[in-house]
Amino acid sequence: MDGEEPMDQEQAAKPKKKKKKVRKSTVLLVFIVLLGAAIMAYPTFSDWWNSFHQTRAIASYVEAVENTDEEQLNAMIQAAREYNQRLLTKSDRYKLSEEERIEYESLLNLSDNGVIGYIQIPAIRVNLPFYHGTDEAVLQVAIGHLEGTSLPVGGESTHAVLSGHRGLPSARLFTSLDKMQKGDVFTITVLNQTLTYEVDQIHVVLPQEMEDLDIFPGQDYCTLLTCTPYGINTHRLLVRGHWIPNLAVSPDALEDAVRIPVYIVLPAVGIPLMFLFLMGMLLYYRRRPVVKKGTAKAAASAGGGTLPEAGGRRTSERAGTTGKRRHSSRGTSRQGRTGTRPRYSGQRSGKRDRDRKK
Q1: Structural domain includes residue 35
Q2: Which of 40, 193, 228, 355 pairs as cysteine with 237 (C-beta 3.0–4.6 A)?
Q3: Average pLDDT in the 138-143 region?
Q4: Is the pLDDT confidence value at 204 over 90?
Q5: Is residue 205 predicted with pLDDT exceeding 90?
Q6: 335 domain residue, yes or no
Q7: β-bridge pairing 185-190 and 115-121
Q8: How far, in Å, CA of 190 to CA of 110, rounded?
Q9: pLDDT for the residue numbered 291
C-alpha cells in the first residue's frame, strides 16, 4: 500500500490535459467546404448515375432479345410496320385516342417497361435507350419516341422522330447534338435488327413548325429532335438522317454502350477526393500549435533551456563576444596591479632624467 501512495501523488502532481474545444468557425468552414464539394460534384455524379442505369437498361434489353424466340421478334416487327402503314392515311396523326395510345404503347414493348430499342451516335458518344412517348418522366432520364411518327423499324414512306433534352444537370442525353454534321451516322437497334442512318439535313425551326417531320413517299427517314439555343430553348434543332446499308460494326460497339465513359468517372472520383484532401489539410493546419516569440523566450528562461536552433546560435555568439570582452578587461586590470607599463612610458621618463642632470 505504501508503494502505491507515491504513484498517486505523482499522478495528482501531473497537470491534467485540457480538452480541445472544437471552434464553431471550424465546423462552419468544414460544412461550407463539404457543401461546395457536393454542389460541384452533383452534375457529374448525377450524369454518371443516370448513365449507369441507362447502360443497365440497354444490357437488360439485349439479354431479353437474346432470350426471345426469333418468330416472336419477327411478328412484333411486322405489327409495327402495319401500324406505320395506317399512319399514312391518318389525317391528324399527332392526336391519339385512348384506344390508339394503348395500341401504340403495346407495340415493340418486349419487356413491358416501355423500352423500344437503343440509339448509338459515335460522333457525340451517345448510347441511350429510347421509350414510348415524350412525357417529361421519360425525357428527364432517356430519349423518347414522338407519338404520331413512324415506329423505328425502317421501310419506305416512314419517318421516325426521337426526342431528347439538352443541358440537364442530371444527364447529358442530346446535349451535344448541335455538334453533329452532315455525313455523320447513327444507328438504331430495335429487337433483332439494326438500322443505320446518315445525316443529310440540319434545321433550326420554331416549335410549331412541323413540316420537316412529315412522311415523304418512298423515303426512310429518322430525325433527332432537341431544344435550342442551349439554355434558352425557344427553337427546335432537327437532325435528319436517311437510311443507308449497315456499315462494318466493330465488335466493341455493344461494349461501348454499357461502358461508363472515362470523362464521367474521373470527375466523379477526382472532385470528392480533391475536396477531402483540402479539408484534411485545413484541419491539420488549424489544429497545429502556434508558438509565439514571447512565450518561447519565457519558457526557455524559466526552464533553463534554450530557444530554437536559430535563437540558440545567436545566444551563443553573444555569450562568446561578452566572454572575450571580460577576458580583455581582466588582463588590463592585472597589468595595472603589477606596475607594468608600456614601453613608450619608460622612454619618456628616461629623457626627463637626462634633462635634469644637464
Answers
A1: no
A2: 228
A3: 91
A4: yes
A5: yes
A6: no
A7: antiparallel
A8: 10
A9: 59
User: What span, in angstroms and rounded, lies between the C-alpha atoms of 260 and 191?
Assistant: 23
From residue 281, alpha-carbon distances to 23, 160, 285, 290 in Å are 16, 56, 6, 16
CA 74 to chain centre: 44
| Contacts for 55 with CB less than 8 Å, ≥ 6 apart | 127, 257, 258, 259, 260
Least confident of 106-115, 174-183, 270-279: 270-279
CATH number (domain holding residue 231) = 2.40.260.10
Are 193 and 153 within 8 A, CB to CB? Answer: yes
Asked if residue 183 belongs to a domain, the reply is: yes
Match 410549331 to its residue by C-alpha cell. Answer: 208
User: In which band, very low, low, confident or very high, does the pLDDT at 351 lie, cut at 50, 70 and 90?
Assistant: low
CA angle centred on 37, ends 140 and 172, rounded to 5°:
25
Pair type for strands 220-228 and 143-145: unpaired
Residue located via cell numbers 502505491: 4
Cell, residue 204: 433550326
Residue 201 within a domain: yes
For 150, the domain range is 70-259
Per-residue pLDDT tens over the stretch 230-257: 888 999 999 999 999 998 764 444 455 4
Number of compact structural domains in the chain? 1
- In angstroms, the CA 74 to CA 152 distance is 14
CB 117 within 8 A of CB 191: yes
